[in-house]
Design brief:
It is a single chain. By secondary structure, the protein is α/β, with parallel strands linked by helices. The relative contact order is 0.18. The chain has two domains: 8-19 and 94-229, HAD superfamily/HAD-like (Rossmann fold, 3-Layer(aba) Sandwich), CATH 3.40.50.1000; 21-86. It is built from nine helices and six strands. It binds magnesium ion (MG).
Amino acid sequence: MTDAPVRAVLVDLDDTLFPQAEWLAGAWGAVSDRADALGLDGAALRGHLVRVAAQGSDRGGIIDQALVAIGVHPEPYVPALVSAFSGHAPEQLAPYAGAFSALERLHASVPVVLVTDGNPAIQRAKIAALGLGGLLDHVLVSDDLGGRAVRKPHPAAFRRALALLDLPAGAVVHVGDRSAKDVAGAHGVGMRCVRVRTGEYGALPDPAGLLPWKTAGSFREAVELLMPFCVREQQGVPARL
Ligand SMILES: [Mg+2]
């Protein structure tokens, strides 16, 4: 992969800028509280939610499986419990150590576009709780572009970002934690990727054929690696020249 100048950076959210587990723990708490209010054993349910989610928190059906585990037929309870999950909106979340100042530094140098999967209301609430909104030129939630079917590694959000930036893929780098989503998605449109080894999937090895351009131990370190390549577009100079 080339070391061509970087004129904009795309950044993933969950487990890249902040530990998704922090949000998830609060969300399971909200589901547990709602279960108590519905006359179920919220504490037991919470234990199973955590256990099932540990097998992969983006698999879906976690609430259903946890209800079955406490001996309850899921159907009557799922809508209320999913709504408690989706409505979880903590006032504050903490970015990874050094991530905020690294994003400030990056944003002062090149345009930054957040590219994330998930329920758009939840993802936007996380950004607000992290206080990162002012450091992002655009926020793209893939689900807004075509539902779950266009989640990463689908190219839709990457292509939309390139269109918004008016830049070719070779001038943009994506930073994210997951090989199957972030590295594969970036490569799919011809973009370089810096993989950050943080969060739930951080320890998974790079699959053959999905080697990132660079690897970093944290988002802060990823920005340190990127800064020497970052080139700000001069005003009035078309990005493609
Ligand atoms: Mg992620």
